[in-house]
Amino acid sequence: MNTHPMPLSLAAHRTARDNARAVEAMLDYMSVPAPTVIPRPDAVYVIVEDVDDLGPWLDALGGEIHVSPDFEGIELWTLHTKTPVRKDGSSVPIRVSVPLPTQEAVMSGILAAVTR
User: Fold this and answer.
1) Is residue 15 part of a domain?
2) Does 36 fall in a domain?
């Protein structure tokens, strides 16, 4: 497994920067937690601190939550959503993730969005 980051091409870097700008603009008017934001060419990844932080994202943008298989007692819960449609008709995929201990109690509204 390659553990070294791969350099981005100029086009991929531009796409990642465009994705970042779209999400930054959205965060200026939406009140959703986003302590860590990582733009990539394929999506913008947001890491939140608590599973309850997925709730405001679900309320604002909708989406589906995917739960990773248990690994050493931890699951990664990831909301797959996207920005509102931009003027050019496109939107940016957003992945909002939080690690949780396996079998952690979760609010019913968040559980309802889980796809397995």
Assistant:
1) yes
2) yes
- Summarize pLDDT for 46-56 with one digit per residue, the tens: 999 999 999 99
Evaluate if pTM is beyond 0.85: yes
- Phi first, then psi: give them for residue 85, nearest 5 degrees: -60, 135
CATH number of the domain bearing residue 79: 3.30.460
Whether 98 maps to a domain, the answer reads yes
The residue range of the domain holding 71 is: 10-115
The pLDDT tens digits for 39-77 are: 999 999 999 999 999 999 999 999 999 999 999 999 999
